[in-house]
Amino acid sequence: MQRLKTLAVVSLTSTALAACTSLDQDAQSSASAGTDAQSTPSATVDGATLPAFFVDWTERALNSRWYVSNHDTKNGQWASEWRSKNVIALPNGLNLKMTSKAPVNGTWPWAGAEIQYRRRLGFGEYQMIVRAAEGSGLTSGFFTYTGPYYGTETNEIDVKFVGKSPNEVQFNAHSGRLNAGLMKYPLDFDTTKNFALYSFIWAPDRITWYVNGEFAHEVTADNFNIPQEPSILFANVYQARNKEWVGEPNFEDGATASYRCMSYRPLDDSSSRTCADVYDSYITGE
Fold it and tell me: What's the whole-model pTM score?
């Protein structure tokens, strides 16, 4: 495999955030593939520059830097609850599972899984090596988010997988009440059968997404108000209420999104370790 380019990755959806304006509400607003030209991010960084982090989930369990969601979701875009028992670490990575449950007192009959990085992160490179959850009705992925629940306007950057469409990845960004337009990016592999490296670079004037080190999509400040607020990094799997977007529920009890690596580094950091540095070893086993 060719040497991977410098990248970054993020996915988005939130926990107790009924006000979140995620892809679930904007599935109709699509951008077409193949019309983007890659450009260079601004070198000026006005947002937060927190320390880089790198996590190899095949070698490390969750620690105190991560919050695990564990609550019901009677409102919002979810058709499942969050249960901490569905977050399973080691030996083969971090696994976020869907499990069935008794629908008590109006709760949903399914529970998903979600983790959140406890520190807010700003402009920089976000990367993940992930295999998406399989099954119509499910969505999985990772994203950055802050919004009214946290005392700010909605700022969100998404990398999403929809179980009914295993040969695509979806990108979007949200700023206030506006979204950049859902981008359905076609892939030549099944995201539910294969691990791949997904990333984005969040700069003050643009967001650029990559798949396996190759440019995929970009939005710029010329046509969208780029998020500026330091945000929380999420990864999750859940059943969504918007069936037009995710399809009719048809998935197995135990459907799992598997994460092998997560990393972040600020824009001015070109030396900290990233998931791109270990991607080849996950594919070749060497």
Answer: 0.83
